[in-house]
Amino acid sequence: MLTQCGILSVILGLIYISAGSEAPDVSPKFVNIAPASQVLLGNTLYFIENKVPMHWFGARKFCEGMGYNLISLDTTEKVEAIKTYLDSQRDKNIYWTSGNDLLTPDHVWFPSGKPVASELWHPNEPNNYGGIEHCDNFGHGPSRLMNDLDCTHKQNYICERTLK
Ligand SMILES: [Ca+2]
Description:
- The chain has helices at about 1-20, 30, 55-65, 75-90; strands at about 35-40, 45-55, 70, 95-100, 135-140, 145-150, 155-160.
- By secondary structure, it is α+β, with helices and mostly antiparallel strands.
């Protein structure tokens, strides 16, 4: 009898504690602190920021502060790797890349200076619409093609770091 009372007391105690608990729910879905994701594809580490968009200069500075650069879609392998990964995540975001024509006649990747391959552009891009589009994003349509855009536009972005 005593044992049964003891067990009952414990159960009632747990119910009391559970019912009386007023601790706020601080899970990520309520406070929106989900971190950007990092993924290693091949020998390149990618930092994918799709929660806190920034203008191109801020995104570039953020990447550099971590020892990364903005993503350069400068090899077929990298293009396929990041597209396949984003597809697997059902990620439809548009992201800043390192591509720009701020200091060059044509669009190039930073810091390599390699030209942006023509097949990466969305049809009729880059169009430098309004004469103010000098920074390049990607993610348009199922092929995740590129567009030049005003650098001050806030966008998600991807940083990359190649591992040795
Ligand atoms: Ca454009």
